[in-house]
């Protein structure tokens, strides 16, 4: 796969997690399903004796649009991922500070020992 997949694909893989373990497969499957249909339409249009350039142009634009939308969707996904990450980091920092403040208020905690009688 060397030379075919770029850094964006690696970043897409990094967004896959236990909650959505098939994320990359789903995105790629959707892209290829639509692209395959468009490529078939283009091939069929090219095989005709009289070419309908208007139809070919439409198919080409649709194919280009799929590629562009795939990239745009990925960029939006990266942005949302980054925003979520920052918000969660802030949340956990606040939670930690609250815990530390609470621990200071209650003071040292002594461990209870069972009596041996």
Automatic annotation (TrEMBL):
Keywords: Cytokinin signaling pathway, Two-component regulatory system
InterPro entries: AHP1-5/YPD1, HPT_dom_sf
Cellular component annotations (GO), alphabetically ordered: cytosol; nucleus
Any GO BP: phosphorelay signal transduction system
DNA repair keyword on record: no
Gene Ontology molecular function, alphabetical: histidine phosphotransfer kinase activity; protein histidine kinase binding
Entry function: Functions as a two-component phosphorelay mediators between cytokinin sensor histidine kinases and response regulators (B-type ARRs). Plays an important role in propagating cytokinin signal transduction.
Domain notes: Histidine-containing phosphotransfer domain (HPt) contains an active histidine that mediates the phosphotransfer.
Record-given protein name: Histidine-containing phosphotransfer protein
């Amino acid at each position: 796969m060397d030379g075919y997949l770029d850094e964006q694909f690696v970043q897409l893989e990094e967004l896959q997690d236990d909650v959505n373990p098939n994320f990359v497969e789903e995105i790629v499957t959707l892209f290829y399903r639509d692209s395959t249909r468009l490529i078939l339409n283009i091939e069929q249009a090219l095989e005709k004796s009289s070419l309908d350039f208007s139809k070919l142009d439409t198919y080409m634009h649709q194919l280009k649009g799929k590629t562009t939308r795939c990239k745009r969707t990925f960029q939006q996904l990266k942005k949302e991922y980054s925003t979520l990450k920052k918000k969660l980091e802030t949340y956990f920092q606040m939670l930690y500070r609250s815990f530390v403040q609470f621990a200071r208020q209650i003071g040292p905690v002594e461990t209870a020992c069972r009596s041996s009688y």
